[in-house]
Amino acid sequence: MTLFIIYCMRLGEMLVQAGLINEEMLSEAIEVQKREGTRLGSTLVKLGYLTSKELLDFLSKKFNCPAFDLSEDSIDEELLKIVPAELAMRYLVVPVKRKGKILTVAMVNPGDLAAIEDLQFATGHEIRPVVAAEESLIDFIQDKYQSQKLLSDVMHEIEESEGLEGSVELIEEKKDEEEDMSAIFESDESSPVMKLASQIITDAVKMNASDLHIEPYEKSLRVRIRVDGILHEYKKLPFKIRNALVTVFKVMAKLKVEEKRLPQDGRIKARIGNRIVDLRVSSIPTIFGEKIAFRILDRTAVNLDLDVLGFDEESLKRFRRAIKTPFGIVLVTGPTGCGKTTTLYSALL
Fold it and tell me: Bridge partners of 236?
């Protein structure tokens, strides 16, 4: 009998003894858990017999260790390098704090001695477990460790090749055909740097960003996105991948890859899930290399109706009166992403 099955049985028995569930609930959850290959705790939450907070509080009390909320507590991303991605995904563990040779690790089952021993051997640290909700661990690992693995693959590819320019294959596309970002990311044939470029664009669109900036600095490559008019740092990348990433973006936007001294403009038409977006792409030479700027225009998010654009009643009346006048000029002004173009297109309909 494996440690995992023992854990499931013990957890179920403990929850029944604590009066949080009954025997019928436990039996049903175990059947679902066996059929779907999920963990007992998350199965009980999914069936609605427990809330995530009830389960987390119970485990914290039973294992006599603190609960850790991955969604609220910030984690230094340097810590993630200590625990290999393979172990993090196998045992659902995330390093959250280090003090000297003591590494605090958030995990679903703080009583999993096999996981703790493997982590001690792999990291060379004494492991101090804290308990965290399974769904938050899964989301965090998929977000952070998947990005790390992708970045590692990009770096490995760059180290093995002399340059990306010679390995990029240009594909003739039909007019107005859009790039499917999801297909690029999931395809085994896509290179790691192509997947990284696809992930950056996809994340920006999902965060409803209006602009995306790839900015080279002396020792790093900074990626920033503009959401609701404010620029936020999305991530910092190693400077070494600058040329490869910029080249992929230029190929996607049909810019001249070999031209690095002059500004260029292009566009990408992309499909992300069921959303079709247009991206205006500009490359600008800087002292540390080329900067790439994207303007993201999400067609599915555009609502060309003056009544829902946020005008107050009096201003809307004056605006409608102005655009119906057969002479004169209407000026629409404001900062980037405030809705100038949407307002003008709505006025034309």
Answer: 222
| The two domains 55-148 and 161-300 share their CATH topology (first three levels equal) | no
Q: How many beta carbons lie within 10 A of that of residue 181, not counting itself?
A: 24
String of b and e for 12-43 (b: at least 16 CB within 10 Å)?
beebeeeebbeeebbeebbebbeeeeebbbbb
* Residue 80 CB neighbour total at 10 angstroms: 20
Q: What share of the chain is helix, strand, coil (3-state, %, to 5)?
A: 45, 20, 30
From 251, 279, 246, 245, select the one nearest 173 (Cα to Cα): 251
Annotated domain spans of the chain: 3-50, 55-148, 161-300, 302-348
CA-nearest of 252, 228, 232 to 170 is 252
Contact 23, 29 (CB under 8 A): no
Chain segment 85-113, per-residue pLDDT in tens: 778 878 888 898 888 889 999 888 787 78
User: Residue 56 pLDDT more than 50?
Assistant: yes
What SS3 state is found at 20? coil
Total count of residues recorded for the chain: 349
Find the helix packing angle between 3-17 and 23-36, rounded to 10°: 160
CATH class entry, domain 161-300:
alpha beta
* CATH code of the domain made up of 55-148: 3.30.300.160
Task: Return the ∠ at Cα 318 (arms to 315 and 323), rounded to 5°.
Answer: 120
Confidence of residue 7 (pLDDT cuts 50, 70, 90): very low
